[in-house]
Write a structure and sequence with these properties.
Helix content is about 60%, strand content about 5%. By secondary structure, the chain is mainly α.
């Protein structure tokens, strides 16, 4: 990530501090990233998102807010994630 992108993420995250929790549910994560909730398990499966801790397969997954905002600001990550989700639903 470049300096401009890092500053953007820091500024956006700082502006949200106190308004969002440090860990986000799949629903919050999907909304911030612009994906559907049912796309989040696909992104986890392809290791584009990593849940906090080591949750069991059927447990609630939480994601670090700072990492979600970094992904949202990274156009390369968004492109790759969009491609993975699109290819997944083609099958």
């Amino acid at each position: 990530m470049g300096i401009i992108e890092e500053n953007y993420v820091e500024n956006v995250f700082d502006s949200w501090m106190g308004k969002i929790p440090g860990r986000l549910t799949a629903e919050h994560t999907a909304k911030i990233l612009g994906f559907a909730v049912h796309d989040i398990p696909v992104l986890v499966k392809h290791r584009l998102l990593t849940p906090l801790g080591q949750p069991s397969e059927k447990s609630t997954k939480y994601f670090a807010a700072v990492e979600v905002f970094q992904c949202a600001a990274d156009t390369k990550w968004l492109g790759k994630a969009t491609k993975v989700v699109s290819e997944n639903w083609k099958r």
